[in-house]
Amino acid sequence: MAGLPRDLWKAQEQIRGYAADYGLDFFETIFVLVDYQKMNEIAAYGGYPTRYPHWRFGMEYERLSKSYAYGLHKIYEMVINNDPCYAYLLEGNNFVDQKMVMAHVYGHCDFFKNNFWFSSTNRKMMDEMANHAARIQSYVDKHGHEEVEEFIDVCLSLDNLIDYHAPFIKRQREATDDEGAPAPEVPKIKAKSYMDEYINPKEFIDAQKKKLEEEAAKKKRFPEEPVHDVMSFLLQHAPLERWQRTTLSIIREEAYYFAPQMMTKIMNEGWASYWHSTIMTQKALQASEVIDYADHHSGTMASSPGQLNPYKVGIELFRDIEERWNTGKFGPEWEQCGSLVERENWDRRLGLGREKIFEVRRIYNDITFLDTFLTPEFCIEHKLFTFDFNKKSNNWEIASREFRKIKDKLLASLTNFGQPYIYVEDGNYENRGELLLAHRHEGVDLRLDYARDVMKNIQILWKRPVNLRTTVDSKHKLLTHDGHKFTDRTVPN
Amino acid sequence: MDYSDRSRQKIGIQRIEQDRARFRGIVRGRIRKNLKKYISQGELIGKKGKDLVTIPIPQVDIPHFRFGQQQMGGVGQGDGEVGDSLGQGPQQPGQGQAGDTPGEHQLEVEVSLDELAEILGEELELPKIEPKGKSRIETSKERYTGIKRTGPESLRHFKRTFKAALRRQLSVGDYNPDDPLILPVQEDKRYRSWKIEAMPESNAVIIYMMDVSGSMGEEQKEIVRIESFWIDTWLRSQYKGIVTRYVIHDATAKEVDRHTFFHTRESGGTMISSAYKLCAEMIEAEYPAAEWNIYPFHFSDGDNWSVDDTTLCMQLLNERILPNSNMFCYGQVESPYGSGQFIKDLREHFHATDEVVTSEIKNKDAIMGSIKDFLGKGK
């Protein structure tokens, strides 16, 4: 695409220099200047110039265009995780806004490149997305728009049923060929013969035997272990046509690609905001631009009562960490200090802050970030609270300002992205080839009408009836969709 | 920009337009009917503040396994005591969702009524209405708007004067509860005062007629309410002053105020002619066709008492209503009890006439389409 106009190009050079001087380490970043129409279009496509044909992009486009037209909001900045990084600037923005966006973008790029959770994402996603688009377009040409789109809808309704940690852990054991191997010996604790009786008493041997038998029984089960990545299970085992299999795998791949961005939303935005604010206020800002910058920056940081602004929480936490590590407010000495006065004036002059936040951006994700660095002082200073629905008054109400509760609620809302834990338990349920899914109930029921429709979609892939074990109003339920109708019955635990 | 980039961009634009067209097709129920139920349309209008309204933009939600909302709650930021309200349910406040997945939120736009009419016009591609009649005259009129301390005795405000006198006597201790004698002096006296206001000559009248016979249920009335609100909003944006009249009918017709119009439920038979007769009388008596833009709207479930009455209706329309009106709009609400015959009769009789617009309103989602049927002609 066309290069940037000269003034923006110069600004980019300058800001890139500042960013590098601060130690940010990013992929080469290509800025593209686009008008609002193009911006809305790219944003609707999730940052990419080409995606496969699907109505939901059209919906997003419509929403963005309308809210732009009605003056509700506009997108200032967009950046995608790719090597090189692509970032889009909105034509006609203030010069100072463009500079701020650039500084912000360099923050994101550094994060993409260095944060551990992004390490397994495809850095050539720009090309990959285009490939996906071409592939699905060819299916559309062959099988018709209706059929393919309908199938994509089915896949999309499962796209949260992936294992967000799978890229980092080996979940499945290597398949070993144990045909003809001797029956495994009951494991014993090594002991001298005269001690054997005492060290390996009969009860222990029996327990070990039972364990072995259980292991053997497990092997007969399918799948051997519950599978959290339902999409992958279906991909491997559902009777699908070839184009369907490919489509499903495309949707799954894209879901995995976007997952780290959701896993690090607070950190990523916080980090980028930290850097745009640092670079702008310390280096790049002209005196005449201060008001515009302050206005825009505070707009980005604004929060409304029912909402936690990830930009705000993120930047403040990074600043808090920096301050704590600069002054030495960490470690056992700090933890144990009971004197308020002493805590107030605590300063060990360590100056480790910058170094610490760089380390934090490398290895943490939102959950571990908040778990480690959210402090009671922070909650008080930033007026955090939990809210709940009060059925009596039909109102959302502030429920608590206690640190423990705030932290629990925050972590709970981030765990598995605040989505229910669903896994495949049995691929041959009742020995009838039915699928059994289970919902690990953690205190909150599923939304049933949606659950029903998702089950129907899974049934379309699996072809045989699909069951889901869950808990509704504290009763254990088995929901079943056989392709025609939906049934539910209460089952003993 | 080299050639390949340019062509890619062009394809890109086509693509998004294609996706958009499909999305619109889904919203309008033309394609992918199975997705229809996921459209979050909600109320078409919700009043907020004085004259701000919200219009939700339709969103189609792909089902996922997710939590039932009411039990969830979350974390927020800001002032307030424990127990303070953050907003009425059931929509959970805030909690923006990021990433690629479409969020559960429904976009609400707050706009003023004027803007709303404009948006409505744009959305439905409504043409600007060409008003007929010569008089877009503004006349001046005196209106009593306030109270003054001086004025002619004939305009003395008795209650206010009495109150002022009472207050004065109480404060100086002249008031005796056993002998409550109030004597106003000059300074107590209050007079009505008036202002001369430029009153735009109203030159459009909407006459809403609704069938309130036993078969029109709450849901049907709700549809009429929403639809007439939108029609009202649009016509108001087109005419400076507008008069609305409300007529309800079962076997007999009567004029009522707005509140009654939407809240009565009569039961009984249906003689549509009764309403048309009243409407015709109203027009003839009060709204000379040369100066007024007249819009009769009639909503019913299409059930009429007898064929004879239907014939009478057609006659009334033909001879007394249509010659005077800009157009006559008939909206038929679907009801489990009605036969829905009337719309067919109308269509049969007036298929050659532009002035009669008929529309079937199956459910709330059909309201938009129906408004377009009515107002799309630009009369």
Quick structural overview:
The complex is a heterodimer of chains A (493) and B (379). Chain A has 493 residues and is of the alpha+beta class.
Describe this structure in words.
The complex is a heterodimer of chains A (493) and B (379). By secondary structure, chain A is an alpha+beta fold. Chain A folds into four domains: 6-115 and 264-296, no CATH class; 126-163 and 227-262, no CATH class; 302-414, no CATH class; 420-490, no CATH class. Helices cover 53% and strands 13% of the residues of chain A. Chain A is built from 20 helices and ten strands. Chain A has helices at 6-21, 36-44, 55-69, 95-114, 125-143, 145-156, 193-199, 202-220, 230-237, 242-263, 265-284, 290-301, 310-327, 331-336, 340-344, 353-363, 366-373, 376-381, 403-414, 448-462; strands at residues 29-34, 77-80, 85-90, 384-390, 395-400, 421-429, 434-440, 466-472, 475-481, 486-490. A five-stranded mixed beta sheet of chain A has the order 6-7-8-9-10, covered by helices on one side. A three-stranded mixed beta sheet of chain A has the order 1-3-2. Chain A has a two-stranded antiparallel sheet with strand order 4-5. In chain A, helix 13 crosses helix 16 (353-363) and helix 17 runs antiparallel to helix 19. Chain A is globular, with a radius of gyration of 27 Å. The N and C termini of chain A lie far apart (61 Å). The mean pLDDT of chain A is 88. With 379 residues, chain B is α/β, with parallel strands linked by helices. Chain B folds into three domains: 36-62 and 105-123, no CATH class; 138-198, no CATH class; 202-375, Rossmann fold. Helix content of chain B is 33%, strand content 23%. Chain B contains nine helices and 15 strands. Chain B has helices at 3-27, 113-123, 158-172, 218-238, 258-263, 272-286, 307-321, 342-350, 367-375; strands at 39-40, 46-48, 52-56, 59-60, 74-77, 85-88, 108-112, 138-148, 191-200, 204-211, 242-249, 253-256, 293-300, 328-333, 356-361. In chain B, strands 12-11-10-13-14-15 form a six-stranded mixed beta sheet, sandwiched between helices. In chain B, strand 2 (46-48) and strand 3 form a beta hairpin. Chain B is extended, with a radius of gyration of 28 Å. Classes of the chains: A alpha+beta (493), B alpha/beta (379). Chains A and B meet through helix 2, helix 3, helix 6, helix 10 and helix 13 of A and helix 1, strand 4, strand 5 and strand 6 of B.
